[in-house]
Amino acid sequence: MARSNAGTKGVPRLDREMQIVNIASQSFGADGYAATSVADVADRAGISKPLVYNYFGSKDGLFLACIEHSGALLAEEIERVARDEAVGIQRGLNTLGAMFDLLERQRHLWRIVVDPTSPASGPIAEATASYTARIEKLAHEGVTEMLSGAGLTGDLDVDAMTRVWLGIVDSLMTWWVDHPAESADQMLQRCVRLITALFGTTLFGSTMTGTTLLGDDDGGEGRA
Amino acid sequence: MARSNAGTKGVPRLDREMQIVNIASQSFGADGYAATSVADVADRAGISKPLVYNYFGSKDGLFLACIEHSGALLAEEIERVARDEAVGIQRGLNTLGAMFDLLERQRHLWRIVVDPTSPASGPIAEATASYTARIEKLAHEGVTEMLSGAGLTGDLDVDAMTRVWLGIVDSLMTWWVDHPAESADQMLQRCVRLITALFGTTLFGSTMTGTTLLGDDDGGEGRA
DNA sequence: AAGATATGACTGTCGGGTAAGTTACCACAC
DNA sequence: GTGTGGTAACTTACCCGACAGTCATATCTT
Fold it and tell me: Which pTM value belongs to this model?
């Protein structure tokens, strides 16, 4: 049996792989690892399930490719921002601005790296851990610097605050996904307004760099 | 067939239901709705799967009972704290303190109400929504009051900040679950330290009540 | 002809859900 | 006290659909 609809469509493997990863990233990001089925991804890509297995070996392999893709994207961008000299809240804002720019057209990518339904052990957990470790390291750095300026240096305190900061970023991303009409710029301006309202403007004057928060300097050059 | 191991063990239905809900809450809270199987819960309770179905009808029915239990607990406690006159950051701290006290011996309950792997539609979603709505309403109130004091009144801004606040609470709870040795008191003190470090002590002097943040007043009477 | 690109149809397992039967307990007659 | 029937508390053994993963086969390009 297995009659007639087979045969190559002339799509080179690498192109097909990229297409599959993109579509799978959308599904994984929107529905989570657990709620996404390989057959579903194949359908949405207009191909059959065995082809996905041919190229990625397993569901985990497919998810790994997606993590590799968005994890590297995110980690590299955040590391790039961290190389600026900004400190304190300005550093946090720069990070947020860069992420808004990076993810404006693909907001779902954020959810892949932080997906709570992905396996908690095995290769997927290790890959996720390696990317979140890179991100958390920088968050930890920023938080340490900021808190030590106020005389707080306890390990557990810094640790908890780091988690809170990552939670804030996560909340903003989630809110952004739920409000598709908001642009990256609008989100950054919103964060500026909120931080100003909470901390007062005086805080910004105390940062070392003389930048004005609004990303017109080299700190925000990532805009496409 | 069906030989011999059946028959009542003399446990009244209500007792058994409470036991099942408790065990299920642990599983749902620790592993999430999707990753928890009814057979697993039954095993851990030392009973068989059909008994669970007999009492709760379905997996969703069981989860609903768990939501009802922890949702009511949380919402009532937060509403109770909201009846105090505290404003601004003090109000947030009171809320955190009350939750730490309430959940100290059952931290996993928090994860049931905010479980991202629970169904996004149907009765479960509605029950979850009704409890989170009660909680979010109060969070929204507090955020509105706080931001309007700084001249920020935009709906979207307030909305986003509310989500961020809930994200902060969520992060702290998650961190707490990962650090079982920390007591409720230690957590509250930690929050006081962090807020003081970030906002400076001046902010507390500007609240209306003369309380000293440390819960020795009526604002923290929930301690068991 | 060979190798890359593809597919239909299958298997195995896991987990939600059910049918039918078993045992303990209790009330009441006698 | 002892049968006797009703009911509440249980279990074993099964069904069934969804989904990860596989096999054999087919078509296209060169």
Answer: 0.89
A64 vs A130: CA distance, rounded Å: 12
**Residues near B212 by beta carbon (within 8 Å), at least 6 away in sequence:** none
Chain A residues contacting B, CB < 8 Å? Answer: 32, 34-35, 116-117, 146-147, 150-152, 154, 156-157, 159-161, 163-164, 166-168, 170-172, 174-175, 179, 182, 190, 193-194, 196-200
The arithmetic mean of pLDDT across residues B128-133, rounded, is 96
Q: Work out the burial of residue A69: count CB atoms within 10 Å of its CB; fewer than 13 is exposed, 13-18 middle, 19 or more buried.
A: middle
Give the number of other Cβ atoms within 10 Å of residue B151's Cβ: 9
Protein residue with the closest CA to the C1' atom of nucleotide C4: A8
Model confidence at B1: pLDDT above 60: no
**Which among B92, B106, B98, B73 has a CA at the least distance from the CA of B177?**
B106
Indicate if the pLDDT at residue B104 is higher than 70. Answer: yes
Nearest to B172 by CA among A118, A151, A156: A156
DSSP A84: S
Quick: pLDDT tens for A63-97.
Answer: 999 999 999 999 999 999 999 989 999 999 999 99
pLDDT at A222: 38
CB contact under 8 A, B168 and A166: no
Q: Which nucleotide is nearest to B6 (CA to C1')?
A: D11
> Do the beta carbons of residue A110 and residue A173 sit within 8 Å?
yes
Decide: residue B66, CB within 10 A, 0-12 exposed, 13-18 middle, 19+ buried: buried
